[in-house]
Description:
The chain contains ten helices and 30 strands. With about 475 residues, it is an alpha/beta fold. The strands form seven sheets. A six-stranded mixed β-sheet has the order 3-2-1-7-21-20, covered by helices on one side. Strands 24-25-28-27-26-29 form a six-stranded antiparallel β-sheet. Strands 9-16-10-11-12 form a five-stranded parallel β-sheet, with helices on one face. The protein is globular. The C terminus is likely disordered. The structure holds flavin-adenine dinucleotide. Flavin-adenine dinucleotide binds next to helix 2, strand 2, helix 8 and strand 24.
Amino acid sequence: MTxxxxxxxxxxxxxxxxxxxxxxxxxxxxxxxDEGFTGSLTMIGDESGExxxxxxxxxxxxTGWVPADGTTLPRRRDVNAEWLLGxxxxxxxxxxxxxxxxxxxxxxxxxxxxxxxxRARPWFVESxxxxxxxxxxxxxxxxxxxxxxxxxxxxxxxxxxxxxTGSEIASICRERDIPVTVAELAPAxxxxxxxxxxxxxxxxxxxxxxxxxxxxxxxxxxxGDAQGHFRRAHFDDGSTVDADVxxxxxxxxRNTEWLRGSGLAAGVxxxxxxxxxxxxxxxxLITDDxxxxxxxxxxxxxxxxxxxxxxxxxANAVEQAEVAAHNMVSGQADRWPHxxxxxxxxxxxxxxxxxxxxPTFADEVVVTQGSxxxxxxxxxxxxxxxxxxxxxxxxxxxxxxxRQLIETAAPFPPPCPTPxxxxxxxxxxxxxxxxxxxxxxxxxxxxxxxxxxxxxxxVQQHR
Length: 463
Ligand SMILES: Cc1cc2nc3c(=O)[nH]c(=O)nc-3n(C[C@H](O)[C@H](O)[C@H](O)COP(=O)(O)OP(=O)(O)OC[C@H]3O[C@@H](n4cnc5c(N)ncnc54)[C@H](O)[C@@H]3O)c2cc1C
């Protein structure tokens, strides 16, 4: 049989298993059927309901505008799959090509897609995390619980962590006229994702909307009352805040533990893969039958010097899923690379924030268009004299222009494309906090060596 015959037979009768039945998993399943895959398709997911969308969970669901169960992802087509929901995968055996489920079942596959995403990082003291009124926001149930707590009219909400999710939740509290304190270890909100300059703008924005913003402080303890309800938070500077609701928004943990022992290059930053979404094993070798997509993937991009990038971006999950699905049913010569420039959006304090590229891959930043004080501007990010990212506040229509600058490695700082050039177009250092702070709330993580560093360290292992 030729390899074309083998591929045809696989597309007709093969067995594909998708582990992680959410955005990336569902979009991959739809793309597999669009690609003409007629074999058996099994979707494994540890959540019990149908796949749903997460971005509204920290936005429209918390305002009460959209009910939590109104976030079900629209289906683009029938995927004709067997759904094994409400049970996590607990292991992957690449010698026998089986996914092990926590209930003891084993599901055989010819090819597997891993899209197990991220879960919320919980509060670090279990008994305090269990207090009534302490929330994280990653699932529909979390958002529903928090929305109910906000609707009850709490005296104050404490948000721990001022990344995108924490800042969006603080914004919703102000919209609902609820007093809110935001505690952030870094010097400003959003600083881990967008750097110090935008961080300062975000801080001003929060304070102007009445947020009690406390930066450079750590929450050390959550205290409850006799009924087990959260009432007070203690800070490392000795101060306290009284509140009825605490939202822990300290970023996510990638769901890779179940792959321990599988031989895949899976760890805290996700599962390493090539641009074709094929997983790498521990030796860095491509595994032909294991694919990765979405928040759990760590994928290289030539624009960013082939460094492995982990993204928690909706658009990335969709695009990567489509590339993975195509490659799962294509021969080597027809495979696609996943090379798109990352895109992200957030809405907070009446401002539509969008980014293109990887802002953390930069050494300088400059406002290129508009006015910071009007909260309508674009800032471009550069690395060693070329454009690597851009962020817009209420000015998203220009981002496609910046995407093209990034793709063509245009010189930094770029000229202003409109007459609204700011008076002072002087680049400043981008100034990201160190890795410890970054790890807490970053939605984009560039791993590998520091871009300014060109050293490899050999570690001798003594037996
Ligand atoms: C509150 C919130 C707001 C957001 N807002 C934005 C935004 O404004 N803009 C933006 O670009 N992105 C946003 N995102 C990010 C976006 O939602 C994610 O990028 C997207 O959900 C990633 O999809 P995914 O399928 O890769 O992973 P996930 O959505 O995390 O899905 C992974 C699925 O796998 C399941 N799973 C995990 N382990 C196992 C296992 N062992 N076995 C079986 N199943 C398992 C999980 O329970 C989950 O159902 C937001 C995310 C959240 C949580």
